């Protein structure tokens, strides 16, 4: 019997949901870190490595989401409402998708120069997934509800920050950029990066509605 | 004891859902009115005021959606299916988000000249949120189901009208606008404005599936 | 008594859900076929007919989705979880919407020349809706779960293919297209066509979570 089957035997069935959510939490945070580091990197080679790493992480996330849905089908009893698990899994998957999409856009749109706006977005994305991770890791014990609520509040704060970065960046872009193709590239990339934080906020909102049922 | 706590004491718990939905219904309708009036305004100063007012209303709406989710967590018994309340709250929140996004885009994209297409969209958005309000206000009594169904039908009709305005406007834009940056601005704004009515239709569809359970 | 009422009398109530899903499955597959054929057509007249046919099919689909939601409201007992029916109906409706949107964009954006990328997308959309149809038709009997799982796997495969077509097409576009308005048109159309396969994948994911409950 392999270690995996052994652990499975002695894990109460609904505990599997916490494990997967924690795995996703870590994964999203690592994706954000890799993405941010690449945008602060000077060497192109490291950026290429970033894409390869992110693609692997995004697939790992897809696979985790798939396992969540399979467990949802197999388990009659779940640690919180089935619909909450469904929503949460879906919105966390969206976070990974949009980080991956943003990274790909830099390549697809042939963006050669990373600017301060992109770096600011990557910082705020890292902060948002960091706060989201704290909230997700708190779900297993539910012993410090205030810490979870505070973490969700931070996710909302960072989404708000991303919104302000986007508004300011778009205003600047439409006032100054006279090359329409450059304008399209940057506008799309900025909007995709801001969407990452929207998806973090969606996830935090589901977590808040989960913990309210326990308080 | 404050008036608020007093009212709460004597309100059956599930009535709180109707109150919040009615508050949101009014709020969306006022947002549409403020937005439409600003597009018919000649003076720039009034447009600036419009943005400030809309931002406050959008926040009020966010806060109402938040309260809906909190109540959903606290109340075991809800006036209609939990998942319907969840969907409805989410899609109504999207209506507010897209009105606010459309208003911001006019500023962010530095659009100086309001045209007939934008005004036509703002009219149809006002009509759609007006019909949506009638449907939402009917939920409390459920005594005139036909009036609710008719109001939902009107929301669908206005969404269809917005769709036609968009098709016609895009066709015209791609045939006549030779300045690519102008084309991008208008295309994005038109699509955002049309999305407001899509979100109204999503909300009306949930309302229809709620009332069918009572007929 | 008309044949329709006769059949209805002798059909267990929850069977109606299978019938509507099968109708939608066929409809989406025909839409994809009509769309693909038009993109391989040389004569403009036939393309105009395509739009008329697609509009009628899209309306038929809207009407089927509406019936699904009405049945969901009327029937207390459903063949699978209510929330799964809800999600599935919604995502299948999105498939139809994005096929119709892609077809309309060709007209709205005044795209005169159909290229190999568009044809490749139309092929992969046809394959994806074909596999989706197999999965949907398998739901009634649930006797060959492996066949359903395989079909869902194929939908995911085709979505992946569409993703690769999009990445390659965008990279090529941003490297070679110097006319910004042409670039906007093609970028938007490609993204809409790729979204059709995303919505097919969403539908396949719900089907997988349904059948896992039966295995």
Note down, in words, how this protein is organized.
Three copies of one chain form a homotrimer. By secondary structure, chain A is mainly α. Chain A has a single domain (13-212), classed as Phosphate transport system protein phou homolog 2, domain 2 (Methane Monooxygenase Hydroxylase, Chain G, domain 1), CATH 1.20.58. Chain A has helices at 3-9, 15-40, 44-74, 82-108, 116-138, 145-176, 180-212. Helix content of chain A is 83%, strand content 0%. Chain A has seven helices and no strands. At the A-B interface, helix 6 and helix 7 of A face helix 3, helix 4 and helix 7 of B.
Outline the secondary-structure elements.
3 copies of one chain form a homotrimer.
Chain A: H1 3-9, H2 15-40, H3 44-74, H4 82-108, H5 116-138, H6 145-176, H7 180-212
Helix pairs in contact in A: 2-3, 2-4, 2-5, 3-4, 4-7, 5-6, 5-7, 6-7
Coiled coil (chains A, B, C): 40-67
Protein name (chains A, B, C): DUF47 family protein
InterPro entries (chains A, B, C): PhoU-like_sf, Put_Phosphate_transp_reg, UPF0111_domain
What keywords describe this structure?
homotrimer; 215 residues; mainly alpha; Put_Phosphate_transp_reg (chains A, B, C); DUF47 family protein (chains A, B, C); PhoU-like_sf (chains A, B, C)
């Amino acid at each position: 019997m392999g270690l995996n089957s052994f652990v499975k035997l002695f894990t109460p069935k609904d505990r599997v949901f916490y494990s997967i959510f924690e795995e996703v939490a870590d994964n999203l945070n690592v994706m954000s870190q890799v993405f941010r580091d690449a945008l602060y990197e000077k060497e192109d080679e490291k950026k290429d490595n970033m894409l390869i790493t992110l693609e692997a992480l995004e697939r790992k996330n897809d696979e985790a989401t798939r396992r969540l849905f399979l467990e949802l089908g197999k388990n009659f009893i779940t640690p919180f409402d089935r619909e909450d698990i469904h929503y949460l899994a879906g919105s966390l998957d969206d976070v990974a998708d949009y980080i991956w999409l943003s990274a790909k856009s830099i390549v697809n749109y042939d963006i050669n120069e990373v600017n301060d706006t992109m770096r600011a977005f990557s910082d705020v994305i890292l902060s948002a997934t960091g706060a989201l991770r704290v909230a997700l890791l708190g779900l297993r014990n539910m012993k410090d509800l205030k810490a979870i609520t505070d973490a969700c509040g931070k996710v909302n704060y960072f989404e708000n920050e991303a919104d302000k970065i986007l508004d300011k960046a778009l205003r600047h872009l439409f006032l100054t950029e006279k090359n329409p193709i450059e304008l399209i590239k940057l506008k799309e990339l900025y909007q995709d990066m801001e969407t990452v934080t929207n998806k973090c906020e969606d996830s935090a909102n589901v977590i808040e509605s989960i913990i309210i049922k326990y308080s």
